């Protein structure tokens, strides 16, 4: 595949992560590649362990505060605590509460499920997979990484029917190394847009192997180039009980995401 990339600023609570990676050809035709997916899941602790969880919590380090996430896995309800805002999802209700005088300016529809999707890859996407198949090999520093392309079921993921994720894995260990993703709700473009990230600094949390660092790289004409951004996950907790439902309920002094000016 031929690739190019556009630099965007470092993400914060009011921006989406949308460094665009553009490819001139689609991945190979999607077929059944379930055995590879199972091996990737096992390399990261196994779907049985993941399926036993009911809720998760983690933080993302920002320059002057900790961004806090609570997710109920069965309902996909979400609560995100930013420095000056709280974003929540309760069923179909997506809401934002301002903690100060400044209005929330981000795209809540994009932000509410994006960071936990990246952190809990491959488990989240495997549970949402509608179809999957092989993808072109990715080469970096003289090593080849095979790829498996996964298209999530939009009814499960809450994403569009054209979204796609490509997990590139170590052929010796089946551990995830890179992720290319195409999420069309970030753009109105008709082009085939991918973003490329590298997973780094793995940690084991209650038996699951999860990344503590996610790095965005320029990907130009098939060559992976400089790192342009990185994000740090911290204090991850995995729980076998559901999260408190009151965390996700819309406060009286909040606004619906649809009421916020973009």
Describe this structure in words.
The protein is mainly beta and 262 residues long. The chain contains 6 helices and 15 strands. The chain has one domain (19-254): outer membrane lipoprotein receptor (LolB), chain A (Clam). Helix content is 13%, strand content 45%.
**CA-CA gap between termini:** 34 Å
Report strand %.
35-45%
CATH topology: outer membrane lipoprotein receptor (LolB), chain A
Question: What is the average per-residue confidence, as pLDDT, rounded to a whole number?
Answer: 81
CATH class: Mainly Beta
What oligomeric state best describes the polypeptide chains here? single chain
Radius of gyration: 18 Å
**Which architecture per CATH?**
Clam
Major sheet attributes: 15 strands, antiparallel
User: Helix coverage percent of residues?
Assistant: 10-25%
Q: Based on CA inertia axes, which overall geometry fits? A: globular
Count of distinct strands: 15
Which spans of ≥5 residues are poorly predicted at pLDDT below 50? Answer: 1-32, 185-190
| Number of discrete domains | 1
**Total number of helical segments?**
6
The sequence of SSEs as H and E is EEHHEEEEEHHHEEHEEEEEE
Short description:
The relative contact order is 0.23. This protein has 262 residues and is mainly beta.
List keywords for this structure.
outer membrane lipoprotein receptor (LolB), chain A, disordered N terminus, 15-stranded antiparallel β-sheet, single chain, 13% helix, 15 strands, mainly beta, 262 residues
List the SSEs and their pairings.
Blueprint: E1 3-5, E2 21-23, H1 34-43, H2 47-51, E3 55-61, E4 66-72, E5 77-81, E6 85-90, E7 93-98, H3 108-111, H4 114-119, H5 123-128, E8 129-140, E9 143-152, H6 154-157, E10 164-169, E11 176-182, E12 193-205, E13 208-220, E14 223-239, E15 255-256
Antiparallel strand pairs: 1-2, 2-12, 3-4, 3-14, 4-5, 5-6, 6-7, 7-15, 8-9, 9-10, 10-11, 11-12, 12-13, 13-14
């Amino acid at each position: 595949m031929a690739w190019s990339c556009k630099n965007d600023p470092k993400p914060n609570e009011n921006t989406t992560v949308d460094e665009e990676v553009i490819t001139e050809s689609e991945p190979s035709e999607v077929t059944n590649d379930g055995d590879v997916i199972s091996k990737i899941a096992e390399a990261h602790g196994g779907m049985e362990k993941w399926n036993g969880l009911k809720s998760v919590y983690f933080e993302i380090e920002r320059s002057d505060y900790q961004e806090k996430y609570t997710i109920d896995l069965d309902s996909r309800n979400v609560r995100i605590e930013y420095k000056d805002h709280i974003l929540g999802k309760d069923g179909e209700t997506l809401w934002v509460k301002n903690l100060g005088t400044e209005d929330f300016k981000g795209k809540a529809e994009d932000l509410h499920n994006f960071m936990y999707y990246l952190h809990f890859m491959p488990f989240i996407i495997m549970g949402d997979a509608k179809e999957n198949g092989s993808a072109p090999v990715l080469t970096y520093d003289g090593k080849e990484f095979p790829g498996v392309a996964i298209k999530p079921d939009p009814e499960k993921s809450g994403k569009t029917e054209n979204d796609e994720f490509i997990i590139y894995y170590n052929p010796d260990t089946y551990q995830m190394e890179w992720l290319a993703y195409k999420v069309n709700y970030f753009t109105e473009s008709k082009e085939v847009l991918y973003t490329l990230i590298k997973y780094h600094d793995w940690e084991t949390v209650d038996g699951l192997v999860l990344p503590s660092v996610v790095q965005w790289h320029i990907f130009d004409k098939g060559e992976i180039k400089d790192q342009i951004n990185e994000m740090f996950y911290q204090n991850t907790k995995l729980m076998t009980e559901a999260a408190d439902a009151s965390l996700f309920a819309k406060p009286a002094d909040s606004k619906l995401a649809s009421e916020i000016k973009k």
